[in-house]
Structures are given as structure tokens and as C-alpha cells.
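note to self — DONT lose this again. spent like an hour looking for the file last time. sequence + predicted structure for the chain T wanted, 768 res
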Amino acid sequence: MDFLDEPFPDVGTYEDFHTIDWLREKSRDTDRHRKITSKSKESMWELIKSLLDAWSGWVVMLLIGLLSGTLAGVIDLAVDWMTDLKEGVCLSAFWYSHEQCCWTSNQTTFDDRDKCPEWQKWAELMTGTSEGAGAYLLNYLLYVLWALLFSFLAVSLVRVFAPYACGSGIPEIKTILSGFIIRGYLGKWTLLIKTVTLVLAVSSGLSLGKEGPLVHVACCCGNLFCSLFSKYSKNEGKRREVLSAAAAAGVSVAFGAPIGGVLFSLEEVSYYFPLKTLWRSFFAALVAAFTLRSINPFGNSRLVLFYVEYHTPWYMAELVPFILLGVFGGLWGALFIRANIAWCRRRKTTRLGRYPVLEVVGVAGVTALLAFPNPYTRRSTSELISELFNDCGALESSQLCDYVNSPNMSRPLDDIPDRPAGPGVYTALWQLALALVFKVVVTVFTFGMKIPSGLFIPSMAVGAIAGRMVGIAVEQTAYHHHDWIIFRNWCRPGADCVTPGLYAMVGAAACLGGVTRMTVSLVVIMFELTGGLEYIVPLMAAAVTSKWVADAFGKEGIYESHIQLNGYPYLDVRDEFSHRTLAADVMRPRRSEPPLAVLTQDADSVEEVEALIKGTDYNGFPVVVSRESERLIGFVGRRDLTLAVKTARQKQEGVVSSSLVFFTEDPPPLPDDPPPPLKLRRILNLSPFTVTDHTPMETVVDIFRKLGLRQCLVTRKGRPQTHGPDDGPGPRVHHVQLVLLRAALHPCSGLHCTRTHLYIHLPGVCLP
């Protein structure tokens, strides 16, 4: 009897912190699809079921887009309100942000559009006056207290309810999409807590953004809707196709960049991205962007976050400062990655890691104390970037636009010539210089704390500040020295030559590229984010330069560095394998180690199988004809074998410790009156992936990357090896030897338990 004719729970599933078998998942989906197709010809009901199955993927994409777009809109509105709450409150409707409050006021003038009677700062509300040192200190104190409260609530909720809701989430998403299992990382509680704490963390004024965590939120939405359809809930490979599309929707709502979101998922996040997933990612990003646009959280009837309108084209001579900004972005990216990884490693290895609440509250307090005196660090980072990107028109009231106007100027409002900088510009420059130093330092200590924290916006802020300063410098140089040879051909006196806001945009792209090492998706996100389609070439020049410069100091971006720091098993397709070794040099076990544990097809008892499972920690066992011939016939997973034996003892009558276990179609010859044998052929993989012992390791690593293997068996003459190569004197082993490049269980620091690592062991080298 084959008791496995009736399926039982959990066979074919994976344990936590293990890798999936992509080939097995693909084969399962092919079998499922073949059955549905054949049944659809039997009746009208089966045909309808097959059509529903075919459309389920598009339904999931629609639901992901709707939910992620809605959550992003709610988060944007809540962040605006709570950020302004640190400075004051709207008397007419306390749930209005500063901007919304003054929009609804009938007493707001254009010159004082940021001031209205309905909006009062805390000192004015409590003491009746908004001027003087006392009012300033009271506003300062309440600003710091609100920041401490928001950060404390954020880290407490994460610590108590959802430890996986901390951080950016993109390193873990990349690892999950490569085939790793992290139970609960995309669960309902994580979705809820991450949404709430993301609002609190961004509103606290910490140097972090909401864009990276929104990718995690969107993937949680994708995982939630996968559970509604067995097509995705029972197949980990298909589930990851949905998560790839969800990541695209996350970037789409984070930046208002649906095409950039698809390219981000393809270039930066996804491990397996078939053409079908590309179409569905595009649809999910479209629905998400449409939903966000319907909510209109920015109040400008546009989807983009930093819409700009520049009235001056860029000139070829400006490529020099653009490339210099790319060099700065690459240097900043390399410096940030090294400093942040060093600090995170120190956090993991010292007592600091034991007090996450104290660390978050301490960093939030220091950030608020240093940020309040400077108007460019006091406001939200998104508002800062928006002001730095803006062109100085006649209606701008920013300090950055305090130029000396000529009394004879009679040009259109959108074509203002270059002018000498006024005192407000010089004041803004040194304040921006202080803000640049502040952002560079504090972001290193903020990213990686136990709260939701994104890196896109802080990186863009660093680049935008540096770019605006460079832009003003170039503008003033061109104005005062327009007769220099580099300006003579394109910058005549009285002309509008240089746009400092464009330099801020290019600097933001350069710094973001230096940190993440994105190129194509970065440029598309930037022009979708700003609407600056004609400035693609400067953006491309800065992005490529920053990547080249940053790669000179290390190939890994910030997300790959955090993957390595956390010890996740991730084989990056961009890594190069330069060691000239063979599979026989790398395989386990080695000569000095015990022989590889194998099962025979019809000679082991239940007791022997259970002893093998208990005495080893391997994730699977080769099945051979016999221990004498050692001809390989298949491979059986540890989890499937454990569940099968356990279930057989419960459900199959007469199975005892001495019962024979066989993997063949027919039972072997048995003695008289034996206990019932146990047939386990159903869980046997009859086509395990094998290579010969002389296969170059470069080929083996490529196989693991491109096929997503969980293990690879190395054979000689069709037989598995039981020892490593004989490197010393004495008789050589003539058995075919088997090597398992396996997912070996290693203890490591984690939130709950050990993680599974895929290790390829080389002499003196350990490559994840």
C-alpha cells in the first residue's frame, strides 16, 4: 500500500530559514496547469474554473495595486499632518496640516501664504505670543518632545508586535525573492505595524525616508492576496512572481514612478523575472499609481512628488560639473556604505544592540536638538528636496531665491536672467553647508535601527544640497565672468544661463546611485519623479559616473552589504567567480570527514531512517541502489522524509521500527510474516541535478544562480562519492563519490532562531 496516494499536510513545503527548490516548484506548476487544461475539456464548469485560474494572476495584481496605492496615500497624508504637528496645530480642524489649514483660510495673502490665523505654533497657542526668546525655546522644547514621543512609539510597537517591521526591508525582499524562506516577514502583523510605525518614524524627524519601507508594505500586500488563491499559496515559486510585481507597485507609489518601479524590480530586486511577470508588474504599478493619484495626497493634482519646470536648456559645458557631482555621489556612496556597515556591525557585536529603544530615542533626541535651529533641517526632508529642486521664479519667496534684481528688468516672469546673489542666498549657502554635514553624519547612525527606515530620500537630500550649492557657484561664476572662454559661447550678459535646481536634481541622482548602484531604473525614476524628461542625459552622466566611482571602492551596494552583514544566503548574479577549482575540490564531505549519509532504495528499516534523520542535520539524502554499487537513483528531502515517516506511523496500520522502507515501484522480496513495508516513492525526486567531479566551479556556481538549485550532486561514472578526493598517499577510493553543495544549517544571530546558509567551501574562502 502507498499511503501517500492520499496527500497529507506539509509534504513538499519548506521549513523556516530554508531555501526553496525552484526546479521542483516549476515542475509542480507545470503539472497543475496540465491537469487543469485536460479537465477543462470535460465540462463547462471545469472550463470556467480554468478561465478563473488563468485570470487569478491579474486579479491579484489589481488587488495589490489598489491596496498599496491606498496605504501609500494614507501614509503620505498622515506624515504631512504629524510632521507639522511638531510645530503647531490648526485651530479650525486639528487634522489639517499647515498647508491644508492655510488653503482653507480666507485671510491668507500670497506674500504670507505660509501664515494664517487658523494655524498657530505651540508657543503662540500657549502663551499668546510667537516672538521672543521664550516663544522660541518653548517651540524648540515641544519640537524635541514630539520627536521623542513619535520615535518611542515607533520602536516600541516594532519591538513588541512585529520585530520584522524594522529597517528598509529591501535586503530581505531581495533574499526572499531569490528563494529564501522567512516566515512572518510578509505577514499581516508586519503589514499593519510597518504601516503605522512608518508614519511615526518619518514624522519624528529622523534622517530616513518612507520609500524603501513602502516596497516592503507592497510585498506584504502581495503575500496577503497570495493566500487567497491556492495557485500562489501552495507554490513558492509562483508566490515570488507576485512579490516581484508587488515590489514594482511599491516603488510606483513611493515615487509616483510606475515605469521606474517595473525597472527597479527588474534591475535591483528580482531574482527570477519572466516576461509574464513583466506584464503583470506593469499592470500592478499602473493600478497603484492610479489609486494614489485618485487620493491626491500632495494636493497638486499630479502624481509626481517633486514636479519641476525649468525654462532653460542645459549646455554641453555643464557636463563637467554634472560629472563632478557624479564623482561626489560615488565617493559619498562608498563612504556611507563602509561607515554604516561598520556601525551596524558594532551594534550587532556590542551591548548597544541589546537596547534598541534607547538607541532610537537617543538618536531621535540628538537629531531633533541639532535640526531645529537650522530651517533646512527642521522641515521634512521631502520639503527640503522640493525647495532645492525648484527654479527661482518671480513669485518664489525662498531664501535661495534672494537675488539682486535689476530695476530695469522687464522680462517675462518665466525667463528671469541670471542675477547677482543677495544676502539671503549667502545665508542659505552656509545653512545648507551645515545641513549637508548634519545629513551625512546622522544618516550613518539612523539607517539600520529597529524602526522602519528608508534610504532613498536621505541620500537624495545629501545630493540635492551639494548639487544646489554647486549650481549657485556655477551660476555666480557665469554671471561675474561671462567673458571666460567656457561661458562666452552660451552665456551672454542678461541671459538665463544656469539653473541651480537642475544641479540639485543631478546631485540627488548621483548620491542615490552611489549608495544603491542603480543605473537605468534610477534615471527613469528621477525623470518620472520630477517630470524633467529633457534632462535625461545629465542624469545618465551623473548616474554612470557615480556607479563607476563607487564600484572602484567595492562592488556591493548598500542592500547587498546588509545582506552579507545579516548572513542571508544570496547568490548575486552580478558577482564574478574567479577561482580555478573543480567540483571535486569543493564538495563535501572531505577526506577527513565521515562518509556522506545515503539511503538505499530497499534495504533500510524505519528505525534506521529515523536514526539517520536524528543523527544528521543535512537537508536531504541521496538514494542509491545499494551501498555496494552506490548507483544514484534519486534524492529525498529531509522534511518530506520526516513527515512521511511520522504520518505513516500514525495512519498506516502495522508500521513499526523494523518495517522496511523502499523507494521502488514494487516491494522487494520479504521474509515470511514481515511487518508491513513502507513505500515512499512518491516523495523521491527521480531527477536530481548532477554534475561530474571535474565540472569547473565557475560552471557550478552559474548553475546554482540561474536554476535556483537547492543542492547539487557530484558524481563520477554515475555513482555518488562518499568521500572527498584523496589528496594524500595510500590507496585511492574507487567508489563514485558524491558531493552535496547543500544548504548547511549554521547558527547565527537572528530574531528567533538559526538561518539556513548556502555555502560553497573553498580553501580559505567562504562564498555565500
